[in-house]
Structure formats: C-alpha cells, structure tokens
Amino acid sequence: MLGVFCSLLASLLFGGLYYLATWLRPLEGQEIFGFRMLVTLPFLFLAVFVLKKQAEFIAFLKRIRQEPYLILVLIFTAFFVGLQMWLFLWAPNSGRAIEVSIGYLLMPIMMVIAGKWIYKEYLSVWKWIAIILAGIGVLSNVIQTGAFSWASAVVLTGFPFYFMVRRKFNIAHIHSFILEVTILIPAALYFISPVDLKQIETVNEHIYFALFLLGLLSGVALISYTMASYLVPFNVLGLLGYLEPVAMMAISFFIGETLKPESYILLICLSFAILFLIIDGILNILKQQKKRKAKQC
Length: 297
Fold this sequence. Notes:
cell membrane
C-alpha cells in the first residue's frame, strides 16, 4: 500500500507542478526550468540518502570512470530530459497545456509501439485496439487541421527515445538522472542569470513562495516516485502512471484552455485507448497473481 500511495502522490504532485507554473509568471519557460533544476538537485541527493542508495551511486560513478563513453551518453540524455522538463513548465503559460497533455496521453501508446517494434514484445488484443484507436485519433486530427501539434510530438517521441537510450546503456535509474540534472545546471544558471527577482516581486508578490513550492513539490514528487519504483511491481507502476496525464489535462481546462473542435475525436479516441491499456494492465496483474497462487499450491 505504501508503494501505491507514493505512486499516486507523485502523479498528483507532478500534475500540481503543471498548475504551479501559472503562479510563476512573469517568469518565462526557460527561467522556470532553470530554477527548477537548481531547487530539484538537492532533493535528488536527499533521495539517495533516504533510500540508502549511497553505495549504488558511488558504484555508478566508478562505472563511468571505467566506461568514460557514458559521459557522452549522459550529456545526450540530459539534453532530451531537459527539453521535456522545459516544455512541461513552458506549456501552461503559453496556451499549449492541452497539446502537451495530449502528448503525455499518447506517450504510453508510443511506448507500446516501441516495445513491439524494437523489443519484439507481445501485444495483447487490448493493446492492439488501443494502438488502432490512437492512430484513428491522430489521423483525424491531422486531416482536420492539416498538421499535428509539435508540442505533442516532442513529448510522445522524445520520452520513449530517452527511455530506450537509458535502457540500451543500462542507466535507467535515479543515479543517472542525478547526473543528467547536474549536467543541466550550467544551462540553468545561464537562463536565470538575467532574472531580477526583486523586479518580478513588484508584479508577483508571491514569487518567492512559488519558487519554494516549486522545489518542494518537485523534490517530494521525485522522491515519492523513486520510492514507488522500488516498492511497486513495474506493471502496477505503469498502470498508476496514467493518473499524471489525466491530471495534466484536467489542470489544462482549469487554467482556462479549451479543446478545439477538431481535436474532439482525438481526445475521445485517446480516452478509450488509455482505458483499454488500463484494462490490459489489470488483466496482466490478475494473471500474475493466479500464477503465484498456483506455484504456492
């Protein structure tokens, strides 16, 4: 239960960060990104101590010393995750919150497609239906608008590629993420260097409190998700992860964005596609439970 609670808390807090971006005006997307990197890094190191992973972190540093090419890999992955984190905070203040939310809704579908195409994973009937529905939704949107949102495309292609690179080089853990954020710190400092917080305070009197919340929510969300990843089976973690894009979409409507009529079919198709993926996940969990009980008998 603790793992499930941590996962749900992380999803809700990440959704809350989406809304918090509107409290940070008039800071621009790259400036919010810069502050987030600075306030997040201490919490990441705290997570290593809370989870008692110091030995693993040191072992990873030693591995990099033995395999120095990983430095280039981490620079590469840092760029991709940095782009996603910037987009996440830029979208709510730029009228693109719904588009980015749609990208996050499409991402699980893209992960399923990548699993089949690259890793030759088995696809159930439910997953095939989800892929077909998502395809119909995207195609209808392209036909009606003549294009597809670049913000949605960056999310639905960028994250799966990022995850695949991390998997390829066996660096899919919090230790590599800490180093990725560390690599991004110079860029973060560059983005916030022109910022005059005293001047911004004349426009937004709550800016310091909002920045404090940015660090607190980011840190607690990351620690909660990391704890959940150690406590909850991977398939259950993936199932619970669908809450975040749903929360993001709800917040997009809450902050005043409206869905364009030409995107109605896309959102309906995506909603059913995610529903079918959830059903598939639940069925897989039930099958695994039956297998465990059968072995015990």
